[in-house]
Amino acid sequence: ICKLKGIYVPFSCIIETKDASLHKDGGYGVMSQKAYIWDLDGTLVNSYAKIVPAVRGHLMELGVDYSEEYIREIALKSSVGKLLDQVGPMIGKDPELLKEEFEVRNDREIVGIEPMPHAKEVLKRLTRRGDLCFIYTHRGASCYTIVDETGLRPYFTEIVTSLEGFPRKPAPEGILYLVEKYKLDRSRSEERFSRN
Q: What would you measure as the largest C-alpha separation in the chain, in angstroms?
């Protein structure tokens, strides 16, 4: 949990940097700051209230009757993709096709996702003081729709989604990409995960 002026918000990772501050003109300069690498679902936005019923509806259409509690548990512990990997063989359907179908359905049903309480305020404070904010998420293209509709997009230097092809978290490649690109100092990092 990140405490910023009395507001608590979960985040993925904080990394301090002193060599690569990104200025508004796009140039780099020397300045001490922090970089915040955020997860999206369940951290910046309260998406599970929409995701879980969407998954349940999709599964019910396929003849699979899992409770919302079970779906939420799997989604929080691993991912919706892992759940669909499990369901595919049960119903004789390719899990990758199930994921594609769900992504289309999920994109239609993400309307109305709200930011977590105080998320926008915290992001605004961080970026005003010169800190860098990034998103690193398992979500694909729908991430951009969500951050646009919630008004969060202006606060992020870069958004890394599944479209970039990095292995799923906790594999470090996505974070290492950001560390290398923005010359972030890994020796002074602290991680916090929203799913703990």
A: 58
